[in-house]
Putative Cubilin (Daphnia magna), 72 residues
Amino acid sequence: SPCDRLFRSDVDKNGTFTSPGYPAAYGPFMNCNYEFRGHGRERVQIIFTDFVLHHPHDDPSEKPHHPWLKQR
Protein backbone atom coordinates (compact mmCIF):
# COMPACT_ATOMS: atom_id res chain seq x y z
CA SER A 1 0.00 0.00 0.00
CA PRO A 2 1.31 3.52 -0.69
CA CYS A 3 0.80 4.48 2.96
CA ASP A 4 2.84 1.57 4.43
CA ARG A 5 5.77 2.64 6.61
CA LEU A 6 8.87 0.83 7.84
CA PHE A 7 10.73 2.14 10.90
CA ARG A 8 14.20 0.70 11.55
CA SER A 9 16.21 1.22 14.71
CA ASP A 10 19.48 1.37 12.75
CA VAL A 11 18.15 4.50 11.00
CA ASP A 12 16.39 6.27 13.89
CA LYS A 13 15.76 5.46 17.56
CA ASN A 14 13.06 8.13 18.12
CA GLY A 15 10.46 9.90 16.06
CA THR A 16 6.83 10.57 15.33
CA PHE A 17 4.41 9.36 12.71
CA THR A 18 0.81 10.03 11.72
CA SER A 19 -1.75 8.35 9.55
CA PRO A 20 -2.36 9.75 6.04
CA GLY A 21 -4.21 13.05 6.13
CA TYR A 22 -4.06 13.35 9.93
CA PRO A 23 -6.01 14.75 11.73
CA ALA A 24 -8.69 13.86 9.16
CA ALA A 25 -9.89 10.26 8.89
CA TYR A 26 -8.35 7.72 6.53
CA GLY A 27 -9.72 7.69 3.02
CA PRO A 28 -12.08 4.91 1.96
CA PHE A 29 -10.63 1.40 1.59
CA MET A 30 -7.19 2.39 2.90
CA ASN A 31 -5.08 -0.28 4.54
CA CYS A 32 -1.91 1.15 6.09
CA ASN A 33 0.72 -1.06 7.71
CA TYR A 34 3.36 0.26 10.10
CA GLU A 35 6.29 -2.06 10.77
CA PHE A 36 8.92 -1.47 13.46
CA ARG A 37 12.24 -3.35 13.25
CA GLY A 38 14.85 -3.49 15.96
CA HIS A 39 17.97 -5.52 16.66
CA GLY A 40 18.56 -8.12 19.34
CA ARG A 41 16.76 -7.22 22.53
CA GLU A 42 15.58 -3.78 21.41
CA ARG A 43 11.94 -3.00 22.15
CA VAL A 44 9.47 -0.51 20.74
CA GLN A 45 7.48 1.92 22.85
CA ILE A 46 4.63 3.76 21.17
CA ILE A 47 2.86 6.60 22.97
CA PHE A 48 -0.37 7.69 21.31
CA THR A 49 -1.38 11.33 21.72
CA ASP A 50 -4.54 10.91 19.62
CA PHE A 51 -6.06 7.53 18.78
CA VAL A 52 -9.60 7.10 17.43
CA LEU A 53 -11.13 3.74 16.49
CA HIS A 54 -14.64 4.95 15.79
CA HIS A 55 -16.05 3.99 12.42
CA PRO A 56 -18.73 6.43 11.19
CA HIS A 57 -21.28 3.59 10.85
CA ASP A 58 -20.62 2.11 14.32
CA ASP A 59 -23.25 2.35 17.01
CA PRO A 60 -21.46 4.18 19.86
CA SER A 61 -23.35 2.05 22.42
CA GLU A 62 -21.81 -1.17 21.04
CA LYS A 63 -18.52 -2.58 22.27
CA PRO A 64 -15.78 -1.74 19.73
CA HIS A 65 -14.74 -4.66 17.55
CA HIS A 66 -11.91 -3.95 15.14
CA PRO A 67 -10.59 -7.13 13.48
CA TRP A 68 -8.50 -4.95 11.15
CA LEU A 69 -6.35 -3.65 14.04
CA LYS A 70 -3.51 -6.09 14.66
CA GLN A 71 -0.71 -6.20 17.19
CA ARG A 72 2.02 -8.67 16.34
In short: The CA atoms of residues 7 and 54 lie 26 Å apart.
